[in-house]
């Protein structure tokens, strides 16, 4: 399982709309998930050890970011025929087990992952109120194991800054994780 690193933030890049099914039976698009001060789009999955290491922190940060007017959505774009742990049914189980405070949606065609240029799980895209990209970095210093509890909350701090100023930090450390599992053919 080779680690993949995200590219640098393309400041100002506009969020691409989508219409994806959530594990709660509803459909979601940009308008339904954005907050008044921004949006965090996360590409995650169930099987990746990098995601597993930070799921509780993602939940914590997204709950707190709601108070700053930041919406959030988690998109699963892996091919579940190759990775059964990432099936829609298992997505629903994980969302319930960790009490996700955001929609968890399935990008079956992988078109959304391609449109965003997502490369790994987790891959975080932090947008301002105008849905302009301001953050493309890591959650914190976690890798396949969670970083110490007192690790700097880089994603959270960046999104709070974006909520308050509309601008993300210039210095960002790329996220690292398992590559997106693309369909063959």
From TrEMBL:
Ranges of residues in domain Thioredoxin: 9-161
Matching PANTHER family: OS07G0260300 PROTEIN, THIOREDOXIN-DEPENDENT PEROXIREDOXIN
Entry superkingdom: Bacteria
Organism: Pelomicrobium methylotrophicum
High-level lineage: Bacteria, Pseudomonadati, Pseudomonadota, Hydrogenophilia, Hydrogenophilia incertae sedis
InterPro entries, alphabetized: AhpC/TSA, PRX-like1, Thioredoxin-like_sf, Thioredoxin_domain
Transmembrane segments: none
GO molecular function: antioxidant activity; oxidoreductase activity
Name of the protein: Thioredoxin family protein
């Amino acid at each position: 399982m080779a680690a993949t690193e995200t590219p640098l933030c393309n400041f100002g890049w506009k969020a691409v709309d989508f219409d994806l099914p959530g594990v709660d039976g509803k459909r979601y698009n940009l308008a339904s998930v954005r907050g008044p001060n921004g949006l965090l789009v996360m590409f995650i999955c169930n099987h990746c050890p990098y995601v597993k290491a930070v799921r509780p922190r993602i939940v914590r940060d997204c709950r707190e970011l709601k108070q700053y007017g930041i919406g959030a959505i988690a998109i699963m774009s892996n091919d579940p025929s190759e990775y059964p742990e990432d099936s829609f049914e298992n997505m629903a189980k994980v969302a319930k087990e960790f009490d996700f405070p955001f929609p968890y949606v399935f990008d079956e065609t992988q078109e959304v992952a391609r449109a965003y240029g997502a490369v790994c799980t987790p891959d975080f895209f932090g947008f301002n109120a105008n849905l302009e990209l301001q953050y493309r970095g890591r959650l914190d210093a976690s890798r396949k194991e969670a970083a110490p509890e007192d690790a700097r909350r880089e994603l959270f701090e960046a999104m709070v800054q974006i909520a308050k100023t509309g601008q993300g930090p210039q210095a960002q450390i790329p996220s690292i994780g398992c590559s997106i599992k693309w369909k063959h053919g």
